[in-house]
């Protein structure tokens, strides 16, 4: 997985950990806990407390000596920092098995990402709704992107058309692509590409399991 470019220059491992802090702190906050220390957070998330302090410093919130972090303040700061409290509209291209599952996963909305339209070339899928989201004819992408200022796209087409579709998306004003295909996209440097592959995680899982048996 790689974020090619990040304006805030926050290290990618930190960016990947920040949602975990938020999910944990939300649970803590729900239990009515007002303050929590970096070592307590680290213990729960199996992370070094020094790393916790470094990571959370990116939100601008600092813990107080012997008191720790205010959970309400920190949750709010994390949501704000991650952009989870704003809705960022996204297109999805390729409403097949994976695309449909992602669309049906409405929790994306709480992650600041909302798929407002999906595009496909399969006539059987065009006109359907997945959740509340319509699946539109692929060519409508070009008309719709003129009217809507959508900068994010989720790419779940077959691999062999991914590059072509990604180029179309960029021509339609998309600036960030969450690429679930296995295609290594070749796009202008200013386009942000987030590659996500279950196979990579599966490879690590299987290798670690095998290692543990040696
Ligand atoms: N990242 C991961 O971990 C992961 C996991 C599973 C699948 N994948 C990849 O995700 C992609 C989709 O997999 P799937 O199982 O959902 O496939 P699928 O065949 O079920 O879905 C693909 C969809 O894309 C549509 N499509 C085909 N050509 C198109 C085009 N030119 N423009 C728009 N839509 C087009 C098809 O009609 C179909 O609805 C594949 O590239 C696959 O390799 C990735």
How is this fold's topology laid out?
Elements: H1 12-30, E1 35-36, H2 38-45, H3 49-57, E2 69-70, H4 71-82, E3 88-93, H5 97-104, E4 113-120, E5 129-130, E6 133-137, H6 140-147, E7 152-155, H7 159-171, E8 176-179, E9 192-195, H8 198-212
Helix pairs in contact: 1-4, 2-3
Summarize the structure in words.
There is one protein chain. By secondary structure, this protein is α/β, with parallel strands linked by helices. It has two domains: 12-82, Orthogonal Bundle (Arc Repressor Mutant, subunit A), CATH 1.10.10; 88-200, Rossmann fold. Helix content is 43%, strand content 17%. The chain is built from eight helices and nine strands. Strands 5-6-4-3-7-8-9 form a seven-stranded mixed β-sheet. It has a two-stranded antiparallel sheet with strand order 1-2. Helix 5 (97-104) links the parallel strand 3 and strand 4. The chain is globular, with a radius of gyration of 20 Å. It starts with 11 loop residues before the first helix and ends with a helix. Residues 93-99, 119-122, 125, 138, 156-159, 161, 165, 180-182, 196-198 line the site of nicotinamide-adenine-dinucleotide. The site of nicotinamide-adenine-dinucleotide has 25 residues, from helix 5, strand 4 and helix 7. NAD(+) binds at residues 94-99. Modulates transcription in response to changes in cellular NADH/NAD(+) redox state. Belongs to the transcriptional regulatory Rex family. Residues 83-184 form the CoA-binding domain.
